[in-house]
User: What shape does this take?
Amino acid sequence: MGQNKCVIEFETFFVTDCQGMQYFKDDADGSEYIYSELEPDYCHIIFPCFDQPDLKATHKSCIVAPEDWEVISNSAKLSVTAAASFNENTQDVKAALKRFEIPADSPILSSFDGGKVKVHEFERTKKISTYLYAFVAGPFDSLDPSPERAAELPNVPMKLFCRKSLSKYCEKMKDDWFRVTKASIRYYEQMFD
Assistant: This one.
C-alpha cells in the first residue's frame, strides 16, 4: 500500500529488421535516423514493460538528440531545450534531465562525445497499448500542406517528415499524401461518430 517507486536501468540496441528500435543510415548523404517499430509485440525491446495489447498505460517521453535532429512522438512537444553540450553549464538541459531522473553521468549522455544536443520533452499520452508508442528522430526535412489542403481539415495540424535525400520527391507528392490522409480521417470520423 502507499506509493511505490521502481527504478530500472535498461540498455538496449538498434536493429535493422523492423523489430524494436530501428537504425537507418542513408547511403545518399550519410544521415542517420532512428525510429520505433513496435508492432505486434516488440516494445519490450525498447523499454521494460508488459507487452500485451490489453494492458494500457500512459507514456511520457524525454528524448536527448543531436541539435540538428527533428524528434516526433505520439504526443505534443512540451519543451525543447536550447542546444548545449553536457560539459556546458546549461540550467535548462540539467532541469529537463532532472525531471526524468537522468543522472549527469549517464552513459547515454556520454555517447554524444561532447557534441551539442537538445532535450525534447513530450506530453503524457492517453492510455495506449505498448505497441502504439512511437517516436522518430533524425535530421528530417518537414513539409507543410498547401493552403488548399490545410483548409480541408483546419483543426487537424499536419506535417510530412522525410529524409533529406528524399525531399525533392516528397515535395512533388505531398499534396496527394495530405489529400488521402485527410480523406481517411474524415471517413473514420464519420464511421465512428
In short: Helices lie at 43-46, 91-99, 107-110, 147-152, 167-191. DSSP finds five helices and eleven strands in the chain.
